[in-house]
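re the bet — no i am not wrong, look at it urself. input seq straight from the record:
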Amino acid sequence: MSHGKVLEYVKLRDLFEPAAIFVMFVANSSTLQFVLLGFSDVPQLRIYLFLIFFTMYLVALTGNLIILSCIVYDRALHSPMYFFLSNLSLVDIGFTSSTIPTLLSTLLSSTRSLSFPSCITQMFCFISFGNLENNLLAIMAYDRYVAICSPLRYTVRMGHSLCILLVVMSWVAACSHALLHTLMATTLHYAGIKHVNHFFCEISEVLSISDSDTTSNYSLILSEGAVSVGAPFVCIILSYMFILLALFQLHSTQGRQKTFSTCSSHLTTVCLFYGTIVSVYFRPSSGGDRTAGIGQRVATIGYTLLTPMLNPIIYGLRNKAIKRVMGKVFQ
């Protein structure tokens, strides 16, 4: 089927949406090749960048696996806070693994092309795990709010069933959000070889090289996407507002220090994650301008690799219970 007939068919998607998506996906898969521009074209830099990012990736995987193993190993850590932390470690492993292996391959090999199905799969995984991290940070903020503002009712309010429900809802919401945006990207028309100005299939860069009208896609990102990212962020802000109010009501300096130390690890992670996201997405798309996209790619490393690498260090080195279990495990 030619692209002209495919586009004519897709115009009927209001009536036959699933069939139109499938036909467009097959048409793109047979004719399209995405070429990633990667992180650097300087041969002397690529090997050093590979060693740096590969080391960071190994540290991120090892650290999160250690945190996950410690929480599973010790029954004393089977509490809501550590249950959410174990899920965060699992998400960090998936988040880094959805993009960094592609980055490493572009630094080692001159072949940087991805098929359309591979690109769409990577886009879905990246959006899913990124949104999951966002949701889990909000849940952990709520958990800290309950622990500090209602300590006597903490066990009742953060029961086992509620914790599981919150995590399941986070996974369902994140996967639904990712599925919606990837399906919308699937219905777009691409032809020939397309150059993606990034080291992975980032959705805004993929939309910018489409031959179709992407107005509805960007409208969806600004509406549904803003809500799915903004709602957890508002939850975090509100939780810490109430925590600060409770902190000011404490008269003892020791009590304030203990309360602040309880939240400091989570607050550090939140600042790292949202700080790098703001630097990436609150700027116009590079739209194929390689020079303009360098800063975006560097900032993307911040939340796709740096934050997942630092999370185990932030939570592990500042948490006496985890350090105790790590000592037992290594012994």
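see?? The longest strand covers residues 33-36. told u. also The CA atoms of residues 54 and 104 lie 7 Å apart. so pay up
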